[in-house]
TrEMBL record:
UniProt name for this protein: Ig-like domain-containing protein
Signal found in the keyword field: yes
Domain Ig-like as annotated: residue spans: 8-85
Organism encoding this protein: Alosa alosa
Lineage of source species: Eukaryota, Metazoa, Chordata, Craniata, Vertebrata
Keywords assigned by UniProt, alphabetized: Signal
Keyword Signal in annotation: yes
Signal peptide: 1-33
InterPro entries, A to Z: Ig-like_dom, Ig-like_dom_sf, Ig-like_fold, Ig_sub2
């Protein structure tokens, strides 16, 4: 049985938790890819060396955690990559999130 290589595409970046100071945040990266894409997390464009993990645990957040969070996916068969970025704003008052749907193909 032979399957063809495809992707990465249909990328999603989800956030679990409140964007309030002291909350525990987890980011989830999902992407369609055959074979499965290699994932990498970045903060403000800098790699976290958290390769291969679909989740990024931020723990108890502070206002200093307000940054651009990106997930980058690479398919080593198609030699294609894509990324998605969200701008998280951590607040000591009301919960808010700015979403920057930046994707590169």
């Amino acid at each position: 049985m032979c399957s063809s290589a495809d992707g990465p595409e249909d990328m999603r970046l989800a956030v679990r938790g409140s964007l309030l100071v002291g909350s525990i945040l987890t980011l989830f990266c999902q992407v369609s890819s055959q074979p499965p894409a290699l994932l990498e997390w970045l903060v403000d464009g800098e790699s976290l060396n958290a390769t291969g993990q679909e989740t990024l645990e931020l723990g108890r957040v502070e206002e200093r955690h307000s940054r651009l969070y990106s997930c980058r996916a690479f398919n080593n068969m198609t030699l294609r990559w894509t990324s998605i970025t969200k701008h998280l704003v951590i607040s000591s008052g009301s919960s808010m999130m700015l979403h920057s749907p930046t994707q590169s193909i």
